[in-house]
Amino acid sequence: MKLEALLEGVEYTLLQGSLDTEITALTSDSRKVQDGTAFVCIVGAVSDGHTYIGAAIEKHTAAIIVQKGSDLPEIPEDVTVIITGNTRKALAFMSNMYFGEPAKKLFTIGITGTKGKTTTTYMIRNVLEACGIKTGLIGTIETIIGKESWPSANTTPESYQIHESFAKMVEADCQAVVMEVSSQGLKLDRTAGILFDIGVFTNLEPDHIGPNEHESFEEYLACKARLFRQCKVGIVNADDAHTAEIIKDATCDVQTYGLSNQADLWAENVQLFHERGKIGLTYDCKGLLTAPIALGLPGKFSVYNSLCAIAVTTHFDVDTQKLVDTLKNVKVKGRIELVPVSDRFTLMIDYAHNAMSLESILTTLKEYHPHRLVCLFGCGGNRSKDRRFQMGEVSGRLADLTIITSDNPRFEKPEDIIADIQTGIAKTTGKHVDIVDRKEAIRYVIEHGEDGDIIVLAGKGHEDYQEIEGVKHPMDERVLIAEVLQELKAQGWK
Q1: From edge to edge, which strands make up the β-sheet containing 401-404?
Q2: What is the pTM for the complete model shown?
Q3: Residue 80 belongs to a domain with what CATH number?
Q4: Chain centroid to CA 213
Q5: One domain for residues 319 and 385
Q6: Closest C-alpha to 358, from 331, 384, 415, 397
Q7: Does an H or E element contain 64, and which?
Q8: Same domain? 237 vs 137
Q9: Contacts of 121 (CB under 8 A, 6+ apart)
Q10: Tens of pLDDT along 207-250?
Q11: Which of 64, 98, 132 is the last residue of a domain?
Q12: 345 and 306 in one domain?
């Protein structure tokens, strides 16, 4: 491919060399440079790609794309140099062209919001797949193409990986793709140049504000709002306090969902149910689609997530009964994931790993009036102590019993992290038991589970490792639960 064709859509200046340069590879990683590569210098939070220009030249890079204002070394005349105002955005446009504009060959659905993105993407994909519409998925947990999947490093991958995955989806005969679009992904132009067929807004709460994330809540909101200037149809939560601001400058058609009949799609007659070992809800869907909906997931946020998924799927030829049946059985790893353990109590795994998400899940579960609400969690090492104090206070206030344990201690002592969590719980009247080893903590809650309890293992969710002193050791809570059950049953536990 000629460099000029690769740069379509990019605002640039030719500093030296030729636009006729033949390009056979594209990368922003100097370690992957080879003959014929276009090397894009990305300015990151940790390192600056411009410092690796020398290394790229040594590997015979064909072209280098640099950002205005960057210091450049002496570059041989036979290397083409392109200068642009934003190399991240340039990489996004170039990746799109390099892989043959795959986004145009798929029905693209992008979902942004503080909470609900992951669950909603799986709901949408499951419904579409059930109706014979082959759909790829890109998100926090994994990327899925057909029967293949691999773990994700970021909620929204770098632009090159996005378009590479899109191209694989096209090759695998996918008709659609649903992906999580994080505020960081939007801020860092990872989705630049993609005109989504549908853009979705779930909700907005203060989060991801701080060093290397967002300077303020206002910037966080502004980044989310970008999605609605790069989609054809926007589907938004009518009940969120920030929706009006999110779509203020939208260039798309807008549809709404919510709990009021002022929305285009809404829920009526929401009913919670809690049987021993089971938890969920039912409601009547009205508006764009009329159908009775049952979910094996708890809480108002599950109503919103499913309404959002239904609103998206109305843009496809979806069989209503298949939609109803699929939503009834939808499960997402690590997101309010019920694990069958006993007929006497309900146990679930959830990714809640900060005070906001923990408060949300515990408040939701209290609405089911359990005999006891039991919360098991820990906090990551080498992270803000405030999170530990806050999570301790939330669990102490809302749970009847808290089990404090270990969760990715990294380079800290688990006992020190637990002590910080205790500081938060001490502000409440909540009871707690401290067990450093997570498997033993899980054994404790199962062995001491009482009739009608709801037990939530919070923090790990889909993660299948425990990070200790720089090493990720295999540790999946589902495996731990199975091992504990086997050991307890061998001792006569029922």
Answers
A1: 337-338, 346-350, 454-458, 373-377, 401-404, 431-434
A2: 0.93
A3: 3.40.1390.10
A4: 15
A5: no
A6: 397
A7: strand 63-67
A8: yes
A9: 111, 137, 139, 178, 179, 180
A10: 555 555 656 788 889 999 999 999 999 999 999 999 999 999 99
A11: 98
A12: no
Write out the H or E segment, with its range, that includes residue 118: helix 117-130
Contact 484, 400 (CB under 8 A): no
**Whether 319 and 183 share a structural domain:** yes
Task: Extract the tokens encoding 253.
Answer: 């058609």
CA R_g for the chain: 25
Residue 205 confidence (pLDDT) above 90: no
- pLDDT score, position 213: 62
92 and 128 fall within a common domain: no
Do both 37 and 61 map to the same domain? yes
CA dihedral 194, 195, 196, 199 (to 10 degrees): 110
For residue 139, the enclosing domain spans: 102-329
**What spatial distance separates the first Cα and last Cα of the chain, rounded to whole Å?**
66
d(CA 340, CA 449): 13
The total of structural domains in the chain comes to 3
418 and 474 assigned to the same domain: yes
CB-based contacts of 165, cutoff 8 Å, min separation 6: 136, 138, 143, 145, 157, 177
- Interatomic CA distance for residues 221 and 242, integer angstroms: 8
Helix axes 300-313, 117-130, angle to 10 degrees: 40
Q: Is 307 exposed, middle or buried (0-12, 13-18, 19+ CB in 10 A)?
A: buried
Which residue do the tokens 């033949």 mark? Answer: 22
Residue from 154, 203, 204, 160 nearest 179 by CA: 154
* pLDDT tens per residue, range 29-84: 999 999 999 999 999 878 899 999 999 999 999 999 999 999 999 999 999 999 99
CB 335 within 8 A of CB 119: yes
